[in-house]
């Protein structure tokens, strides 16, 4: 043994060694966080005029994005300018919520991610309702938000709030970009997450110093009257290092193409089990929800699969119109009775929430096949009112195709859909008779809806935004094909009309786009007539004006004895449309005989490039007595 090995350690030497190790670890971590090591290998190009907005635009273009909806703000200007230069159309709206609703509509109709970009602080808080609606409607949507500079966050900068905490409960993925080089990988991941599994919104925050060029950010980093001595030098070094780290490696080539999207699918064993169940069923029914319209399965193939199966279908949400206007398999009325009689029910993207009375409308004698991408939605309320025979966490559209292939040569017994269709026709005949009744004042809303339904073009897209009037429209108006009906979905949000119609018209410029508004819901987005005019996106707004929040009043008055807060006025909304550059028509009882003529004029104006608002004064009926409002 050496002499040194026999000498006991001096007091405190182990502690000192531990402290030195900790200090080295802390220093190494600090060097890493400050990007010092990264900067040895990747330099900041201080003379480059490029900016982070260009990187954002390149990623969006690579992902097939054609539109960015926005309400402009200085925090996001570089993104908007760069997108425009790359041929991405910038569509500015009059409210941030409308921008998100429009992006939601594009996502639903195009199969690509919808994109909205808004400024920091109040620009983002204005989108909260629309983002929550997209979450509950399962729409793949990218929300881009501006933010205060990285060094100024939490220091009282203009419009600086904790935006990530606000959006984490609403979005599948949230991120704040901290350097320019992070823009591409963060956006690629965000878009892939939004489209994978159960689609939904994602949020990416861009501090303003990650978007503007080096020389402009450098000016903002300049320190005036810096303290002298060691402290001053330390501050100057820190600021310069932070600036260089922001832009280090910013313009090195990066892959901007889409990442793989993960979509759950049924197993072969599950599909075979369902094939056997359907083959033995005598009275099967399919309830088709919005999920069935999601990529990758084209709507036309789903329609062909449903027609091959020959099973009567109830269509909801975006699935309305899947079978066309007059299919013998599409059953629109008496759903509760049909479900009680059915021996097999396929819930294809349909959820047992309030819309199915939490599952209570399903018969306990029925075999139930439930298919949904989201496990919580797949089994919602199954512990209380219903129980699936087969529960598949997977894509509803591809499941229906595989089910149809497994049942080739087999069709549902024809007398079953025929009997349901007879009930359908009887109910619709009764509805037409009710539409012919004369109301105490103004026009019968059912008659108005029937005439619009008959006269609208075959390629029409219907946007539903309202309560009572829109609830009636859901029974009367028949979408002509797949992806030709847009409603808010499970959240029941008012105010979607302007944004949904804007997105729909941009996706299908050749189509006639109708917004069915209640007079209450119109107030949320009537200002978007200015947007329709500026961006040459003519639509037709059919407003059922009964000067009342009727869906609420119907229950509030008999139960609580007061109409407080339910009354509106017979406002001249047609004049508002004129003021925004559109064309408005007032339709009261005096114009009832010319209703078809006025609708024809509106269609002609629309074809000539002008947005039209039909302000229809309507009376009261008992058509929707007993409908729920809470």
TrEMBL record:
Gene3D superfamilies: 3.40.50.970, TPP-binding domain (3.40.50.1220). It is a single-pass membrane protein. Its cofactor is thiamine diphosphate; Mg(2+). Its main location: endoplasmic reticulum. It is found in: Endoplasmic reticulum membrane. GO terms for cellular component: acetolactate synthase complex; endoplasmic reticulum membrane. It catalyses: (2R)-hydroxyhexadecanoyl-CoA = pentadecanal + formyl-CoA; 2-hydroxyoctadecanoyl-CoA = heptadecanal + formyl-CoA. Keywords: Endoplasmic reticulum, Fatty acid metabolism, Lipid metabolism, Lyase, Magnesium, Membrane, Metal-binding, Thiamine pyrophosphate, Transmembrane, Transmembrane helix. The keyword Electron transport does not apply. Residues 271-402 form the Thiamine pyrophosphate enzyme central domain. Residues 51-166 form the Thiamine pyrophosphate enzyme N-terminal TPP-binding domain. The keyword Metal-binding applies. One of its GO terms (molecular function) is lyase activity. Pfam families: TPP_enzyme_C, TPP_enzyme_M, TPP_enzyme_N. Residues 465-614 form the Thiamine pyrophosphate enzyme TPP-binding domain. One of its GO terms (biological process) is fatty acid metabolic process. Belongs to the TPP enzyme family. This is 2-hydroxyacyl-CoA lyase 2. It comes from Lepisosteus oculatus (Spotted gar). The lineage of its organism: Eukaryota, Metazoa, Chordata, Craniata, Vertebrata.
């Amino acid at each position: 043994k050496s002499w040194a090995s026999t000498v006991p350690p001096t007091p405190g030497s182990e502690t000192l060694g531990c402290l030195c190790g900790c200090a080295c670890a802390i220093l190494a971590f600090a060097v890493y966080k400050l990007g010092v090591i990264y900067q040895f290998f990747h330099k900041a190009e201080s003379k480059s005029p490029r900016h982070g907005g260009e990187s954002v635009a390149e990623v969006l273009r690579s992902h097939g994005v054609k539109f960015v909806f926005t309400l402009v703000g200085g925090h996001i200007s570089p993104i908007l300018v760069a997108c425009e230069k790359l041929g991405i159309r910038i569509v500015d709206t009059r409210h941030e919520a409308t921008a998100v609703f429009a992006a939601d509509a594009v996502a639903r109709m195009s199969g690509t991610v919808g994109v909205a970009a808004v400024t920091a602080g109040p620009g983002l808080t204005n989108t909260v309702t629309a983002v929550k609606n997209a979450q509950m409607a399962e729409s793949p949507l990218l929300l881009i938000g501006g933010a205060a500079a990285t060094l100024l966050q939490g220091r009282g900068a203009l419009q600086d709030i904790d935006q990530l905490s606000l959006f984490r409960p609403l979005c599948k993925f949230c991120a704040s970009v901290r350097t320019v080089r992070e823009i591409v990988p963060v956006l690629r991941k965000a878009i892939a997450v939004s489209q994978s599994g159960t689609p939904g919104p994602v949020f990416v925050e861009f501090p303003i110093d990650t978007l503007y060029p080096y020389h402009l950010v450098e000016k903002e980093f300049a320190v005036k009257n810096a303290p002298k001595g060691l402290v001053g030098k330390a501050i100057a070094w820190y600021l310069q290092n932070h600036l260089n780290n922001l832009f280090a490696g910013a313009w090195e080539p990066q892959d901007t193409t889409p990442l793989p999207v993960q979509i759950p699918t049924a197993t072969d064993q599950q599909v075979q089990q369902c094939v056997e169940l359907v083959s033995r069923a005598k009275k099967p029914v399919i309830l088709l929800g919005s999920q069935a319209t999601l990529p990758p399965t084209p709507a036309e193939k789903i329609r062909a699969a449903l027609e091959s199966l020959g099973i009567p279908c109830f269509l909801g949400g975006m699935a309305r119109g899947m079978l066309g206007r007059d299919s013998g398999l599409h059953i629109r009325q008496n759903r509760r009775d049909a479900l009680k009689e059915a021996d097999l029910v396929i819930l294809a993207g349909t959820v047992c929430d309030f819309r199915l009375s939490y599952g209570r409308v399903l018969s306990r004698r029925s075999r139930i096949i439930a298919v949904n991408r989201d496990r919580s939605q797949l089994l919602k309320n199954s512990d209380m009112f219903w129980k699936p025979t087969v529960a598949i966490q997977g894509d509803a559209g591809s499941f229906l195709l595989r089910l149809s292939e497994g049942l080739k040569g087999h069709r549902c017994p024809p007398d079953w859909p025929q009997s349901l269709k007879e009930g359908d026709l009887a109910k619709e005949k009764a509805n037409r008779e009710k539409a012919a009744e004369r109301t105490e004042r103004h026009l019968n809303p059912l008659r108005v809806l029937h005439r619009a339904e008959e006269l609208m073009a075959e390629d029409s897209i219907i946007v539903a935004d309202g309560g009572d009037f829109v609830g009636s429209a859901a029974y009367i108006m028949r979408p002509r094909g797949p992806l030709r009906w847009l409603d808010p979905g499970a959240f029941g949000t008012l105010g979607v009309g302007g944004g949904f119609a804007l997105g729909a018209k941009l996706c299908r410029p050749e189509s006639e786009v109708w917004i069915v508004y209640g007079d209450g819901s119109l107030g949320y987005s009537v200002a978007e007539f200015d947007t329709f005019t500026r961006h040459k996106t003519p639509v037709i707004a059919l407003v059922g004006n009964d000067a009342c929040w009727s869906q609420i009043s119907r229950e509030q008055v008999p139960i609580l004895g007061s109409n407080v807060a339910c009354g509106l006025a017979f406002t001249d909304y047609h004049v508002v449309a004129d003021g925004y550059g559109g064309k408005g028509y007032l339709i009261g009882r005096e114009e009832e005989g010319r209703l078809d003529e006025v609708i024809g004029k509106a269609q002609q104006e629309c074809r000539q490039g002008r947005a039209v608002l039909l302000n229809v004064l309507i009376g009261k009926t008992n058509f929707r007595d007993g409908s729920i409002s809470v």
